[in-house]
Amino acid sequence: MEIDDFITAIEEEFDDLNPGDVSPNSVFRDMEGWSSMHALIFVALIDSKYDVLLTGDELKSCVTINDLFDITLLKINGGGANT
Amino acid sequence: MAELILKHTAIKAIYSVVPKTVYKTHDYPYFSEDEAKMFAKTTGIIERRVAATNVTASDMCFKAAQTLLEDLNCHHEIDLLVFVTQSPDYFLPASAAILQDKLGLPKTCMAFDVNLGCSGYVHGLLLANRYLQQGGLRKVLLLAGDKSTISTHEQDKTAFPLFGDAGSATLLEYDAKGEDWFFDAGTDGSGADAIIIEAGHSRMPYQSFDDQDIEVAPGVVRSKKHLAIDGMAVFNFALKNVPKSINNALDLAKLSADQLDYLVLHQANQLITDSIRKKMNLPKEKCPSSIGNFGNTSSASIPLTLCSELSEALKNERLCLLLCGFGVGFSWASLLLSTHNVATKLLEYD
Predict the structure, then answer these.
(1) What is the ipTM of this complex?
(2) Minimal C-alpha gap between A53 and chain B (Å)
(3) By the 8 A CB rule, do B122 and B142 touch?
(4) Cα separation of B18 and B64, whole Å?
(5) CB-based contact (8 Å) between A62 and chain B?
(6) Residue B8, C-beta contacts closer than 8 angstroms, at least 6 positions apart
């Protein structure tokens, strides 16, 4: 699992994102019009692509795309409270 | 583990009723244009039906049941009426008792309410089977409906545009030659707070709480007497439990998901139903959706989807269906069943 694939999947999921718009240091809550709907789409995307279900608390603990990637990777490898 | 094999029950008819009034997502005044687009994309809801102030869930179910009983001419054979709802007419008596009288059912007919939401229709089918399969009762009328819009605050962007109103009536009868049904269910009450109306009943009676509106998050205004929903918690609950429950019912039947004609899920929102469908490796065509036209209609969403999306197939084909309801409680139930020659109707309430 590479962060580039992770970022590409995110850019493909949102209509208003273009390739190159997202970097590991992007703060995902700074996306234009961020709402609880965006949060659900992130969690659904990660579940669908990586079979990892992030809880609301886990999402809250993340700030950047890299944080999301790290917690997803941790759960793929058997860490976290809710794999 | 609540896994059961059910015998000797057939569904004869399913009628659903929705109010005439249409609310469109794009007309919701508290959404910006972008928010409306994002909401429609995520939930799948383009429009939904909303009942008038003086119309209750029992009124919509009454219309469905009255039409069904007239069409099939079987008032006198109903031995049990079950009304699944979380929006009854009164704290007491049970709305089922009022419906027994209004529908002109015999006084020998048992009638009771079941306080379940999104999982309630499937639990109701199990209850009907439990009473029918011994052969003592002739027919059961299962009503499932909710007026969820009475509980949501107009300025709560997370709840108000999500729910629609609907009622349904399903007629079941004893069938000595009926094929087996396969049932799985569960409960996780640790999720009680994820979908809740806190105030207005015994735990927090009226006049004992502050019913002022509060902005609990940007664009989310409600008081304790309104329905509150935690979408992320519901998503997590559903994805953790629903595929397992569906697989348990399939295992019990010794079938695989691709042998189903249709998987009919509670219409929670499109993101949840699509995620479950993908986990089951099923194509979109096998997982009918009605949420675009009706929103989340709680206990009525499965019968409404059957009436709106599978009417012809239910009438003309022998189907292997898996119905799965899940939500408030948390509670869930899956039922694998066969149907043949089921009459359906989708009606509007004026």
Answers:
(1) 0.89
(2) 7
(3) no
(4) 9
(5) no
(6) B129, B132, B133, B135, B174, B175, B176, B178
